[in-house]
Here is the input.
Amino acid sequence: MSSASGDTLSLRRQLILYAALSFLAFWFLVPFAWMLITSVKTPDEVFSRLLPSVLRLANFVEIFNQPTLPFGRYFLNSTIITVFGTGASLFASSIVAYAFARLNFFGRDVLFVAVLSTMMLPAAVTMIPTFVLFQKLGWVDTFLPFLVPACTGNAFQIFFLRQFFKTLPIDLIDAARIDGCSNLRICLSIAMPLAKPTLATLAILSFLSLWNDFMGPLIYLHSNEKRTLALGLNAFAGMYGTQWHLLMAASVAATVPILVVFFMGQRYFERGLVMTGMKG
Here is the structure.
C-alpha cells in the first residue's frame, strides 16, 4: 500500500507541476498571440473584436510600402549587421578561445582574466568613450561600429568556447601535430567542426542580441536609410501609434527571422550547453 500511495503522490506532483507550467506558458504566449491576431485585423477591429472577421494580409504588404519608413531597407540593414556580426564574432572568438585552451604562452591566464573582466563592465561605463573613439575615426552613421568590433571576438563567446575546447582529448591534438598540422589548421579543421553544437548555441544567442539591439543603432546610426529594424519599429510606434494593425504586422515580420533561426538550431542548443560543461 505504501508503494501505491507513493506512486499516487508522485503522479499528483507531476500533474500539479505540468498544470503550473502550462499556465505560465499560456500567459507567456498571450502577448505573442495578440500581436499575431492584431497583425491581420482591420483598423476598426483592433480593439472591438477578439478575432478578425477576415484575415487582412494586406497589412504585411502595406508596411513595406510606407514612403517615409523604408521597412525593407531596415530589414536589410539588420540582416547585414546581424549575419556579418555573428559570423565574424564566432570565427574570431573560436581562434582566441582555442589559443587560451590549448596553447601555452607567457601570461595566458592573466590575459584570459583580463578578457573576462570586460564582461563585468556595465555598457553604460564604456558607452561614451567608445562613441568618442568611433566619432574621431569617422565611423558614426556607418555600420563600422558594429562590424569592426565583431572581428575581434566576444568575451562571453571566448569563455564559452574555451570551456568546450578544454574537453577535447589531448591525444587528438597531438596526433594532428604529428601529422604536421599547425595550430591554426588544428583549430579550423578539427576543433571547430567538433564544436558545431556549441557554435550553434552561440550563433543563436548572438543573432538574438544583434537583431534586437536598440541602443547601439540609436547611438551610431542617424540616417533614415541606415536604421535597423529595432529603430524602424520604434518609428512605427511613433508615427502609427493608433494604427496598431500596422505596428503589429511590422513586429510579426521582425519576429519571423528570430523564430526561423531558433527552430533551425534548436536541436543543437541544449546539446551545446551540455557539451560545453564547466571544466577548468
